[in-house]
Specification:
Blueprint: H1 13-35, E1 53-67, E2 70-73, E3 84-86, E4 92-94, E5 100-102, H2 105-117, E6 121-122, E7 130-131, E8 134-146, E9 152-163, H3 170-173, H4 177-200, H5 203-208, H6 220-224, H7 226-229
Antiparallel strand pairs: 1-2, 1-5, 1-8, 3-4, 6-7, 8-9
């Protein structure tokens, strides 16, 4: 992964997001500094109530891959398989996963580049550097804000970027042996993800507010993404179709 000039059309989606993300937080902090001035009457005579003031924020990043049915930390040179566990709230925790504190876009991109260089790739007939794993890059944002009632609130948000390995057709990729076994696991993970998305987007369930089973446990990939797909999360899916 090579660093491209910020205005270059070759800059990828994640670097673009990271750059905008830090710019947005700086703007939010500046707006909070401006809003900390005394309140003043608006045009209709009522007091203007500013948005919650951003007191401080912290960010950290992690990067992992799902290879077969194993989870590996892309920021750990020893590449130990990491176990998945559930916390007391039912959320998924990856025991032993490295997290790096990031304070600007350069530090965030360094994490991204380091992990990308450690990712599992191999040559197939379709792609000389075919991704043989699903990669998950996560930024965790913790914000401390103060409302008009002078109460401080701490909130945590996760931004999860997933680079899925491409769906494999054995005849076209010419996969044999280890490459074929990797392809089967890739397809199994994609199928499980499709089943989860179908369950979450079931129109009949949404119309009738029916409870439906969402098969998160069908694969390591879907278990990892449970928090990013369900609950109050918003999901954007971008597909590259030949």
């Amino acid at each position: 992964a090579h660093t491209q000039p910020e205005g270059s059309p070759q800059v990828g989606l994640i670097p673009r997001f990271i750059s905008d993300f830090f710019r947005l937080m700086q703007d939010k902090r500046q707006a909070s500094n401006d809003a900390s001035a005394p309140t003043h009457p608006s045009a209709d005579g009522s007091l203007f109530s500013p948005s919650p003031i951003l007191l401080e924020y912290h960010m950290k990043a992690s990067f992992l891959e799902v290879y077969g049915e194993d989870v590996y930390d892309l920021l750990d040179s020893e590449r130990k398989s990491l176990p998945l566990r559930e916390d007391s709230d039912g959320g998924i925790v990856i025991a032993g996963l490295t997290t790096r504190t990031i304070s600007n876009s350069v530090e965030a991109l360094n994490v991204l580049h380091e992990g990308t260089n450690n990712r599992t790739t191999a040559a197939t007939l379709m792609n000389l550097t075919s991704s043989r794993s699903h990669a998950v890059f996560t930024i965790t944002l913790t914000q401390k804000t103060r409302g008009n009632d002078q109460v401080d609130v701490v909130s945590t948000s996760k931004f999860t970027f997933v680079d899925l390995a491409g769906s494999e057709r054995m005849k076209k990729t010419g996969a044999e042996g280890e490459r074929a076994r990797e392809g089967i696991k890739i397809n199994e993970g994609l199928l499980a993800l499709g089943n989860v998305i179908n369950a979450l987007a079931d129109e009949e369930r949404l119309m009738k507010e029916k409870t439906i089973h969402v098969p998160y446990r069908q694969s390591k990939l879907t278990r990892l993404l449970q928090d990013a797909l369900g609950g109050n999360s918003q999901t954007f899916f971008l597909a590259c179709v030949s």
